[in-house]
Amino acid sequence: MPTAKAKVRILMHETRFAAEMPALEMEIPGISYSGEEKTIDLSAASVTPEIKGTPFAKYVITNLTGKADSKYLTITFTCAGAFDVNYQGRLIIEK
Fold first, then answer.
1. Among 31, 74, 27, 66, CA closest to 50
2. Which residues have CB under 8 Å from 9's CB, separation 6+?
3. Are 68 and 92 in contact (CB under 8 A)?
4. CA 85 to CA 51: how far, in whole Å?
5. Rounded to two decimals, what is the model's pTM?
6. 11 sits in which H/E element
7. CA angle 66, 78, 86 (to 5 degrees)
């Protein structure tokens, strides 16, 4: 029987892609990852983020790529077809 491909969720705290956009607690579910214990590669061609557990198609995320190690996360993606996002920061892992 084939095994399910591993996925992660990223929580974006008080996220804004434009000055007029309200700060949102947004989660990006269903991100594939691969790699070794020390570094993983993240990717998603297209994924609908969630706000309070509800899919939010207005801000669909495309072309997500990134890397994570035990301390840092770097990701890039396009949101809503208009906002190019580049993030590098501390990685916090919820268990």
1. 27
2. 27, 28, 29, 30, 31
3. no
4. 18
5. 0.81
6. strand 7-15
7. 50
What's the CA gap between 42 and 34, in Å, rounded?
7
Query: Contact 28/44 with Cβ under 8 angstroms?
Result: yes
Contact call for residues 23 and 15 (beta carbons, < 8 A): yes
* Interval 42-92: pLDDT, tens: 999 999 999 889 998 988 999 999 999 988 999 999 999 998 989 888 877
Read off the amino acid at residue 60: V
Which of 20, 22, 31 lies closest to 77, judged by CA? 31
Q: Residue 58 gets which letter from DSSP?
A: G
Q: Which candidate, 95, 39, 85, 90, places its Cα nearest to that of 64? A: 85
Q: How far is Cα 7 from Cα 77, in angstroms, rounded to an integer?
A: 17
